[in-house]
């Protein structure tokens, strides 16, 4: 009998171990697939008691998080990158308008238009609707706000406010923000996936171009840039991130400017770039100016030789990372055809969009093409 009891005990122990393994596996995050089904709320056994946001604020967390709202530029976009849009319980005003050049909005508009509005949003217009937020009662607020604004909102609503930001391509703060969101919304695996994808692209772009001697690089220029509205060819960008990612010889970098600004046309003639890239969203402004100043345009080498190409605007309510990555690859194929000869830009576009936003993005690039916003050669003269 004693021998039998020992066998039974061993069997019971084995069953117990198997059950524990099964329960542990079920308690972990599901394997990440594009557009994976919504998971249940994150319980107190998975959540830390608090997180430290980008400002170093210690933000206490509730025992379970089933819903969130996103305020300010980039917050909702990053939640969509982590495929946690199913947890969004309210949106800012602009998300009730479908916008093709905000991919996260365009692809999730069907959901967003049904959600209550909880803030004004928009550039330099971060106004939370506190009463509506309290009515929606999210478990946590993810906000691209200043520290003071976040503290004020948290005090007024009693809801934890976690500050995030994503203002520059390959920005360390962006990676920190994605990690914060992943922790809070139970998307750690997806966060690791997205971060690795972006970093691998950064490394690939760098490796293809870092050894090219400066004297062998053509002079390039990015025009028709949008900032505080659309601009013609004179709207440009120094330290333009897609150019920086491929070590391009950007004419505007020789100025003391940083970011977007208006360049004098005489200066553009002096630079006389070999290749010009324009935002097709503002192409009509360029064409209108061409009608008034044809001699100026015909004096530009890039126009004379047909070297004018597309750069899709990626700065729309902060950085749409997937568009910036695609712009970098496309610029690479034009500036350094030998180093990028293996790149099929349509295939690369689809790869990037699906990796960043899931299978719902598999036709997004075609939608850009259909709207005449695809990548390719541009003709300044009206067709």
Description of the molecule:
The protein is α/β, with parallel strands linked by helices and 383 residues long. The protein has two domains: 50-197, 3-Layer(aba) Sandwich (Rossmann fold), CATH 3.40.50; 211-370, Nitrogenase molybdenum iron protein domain (Rossmann fold, 3-Layer(aba) Sandwich), CATH 3.40.50.1980. The protein is built from 15 helices and 13 strands. The strands form five sheets. It has a four-stranded parallel sheet with strand order 10-8-12-13. The longest helix has 26 residues, at 2-27.
Short structural summary:
The protein is α/β, with parallel strands linked by helices and 383 residues long. The protein has helices at 2-27, 75-81, 103-112, 130-136, 147-157, 172-185, 188-209, 241-245, 265-271, 283-292, 294-298, 301-304, 321-335, 345-357, 364-370, and strands at residues 50-52, 58-60, 68-71, 91-92, 117-119, 140-143, 161-163, 219-223, 235-238, 249-250, 259-262, 275-278, 308-310. The longest helix is centred in the N-terminal third of the chain and has 26 residues, at 2-27.
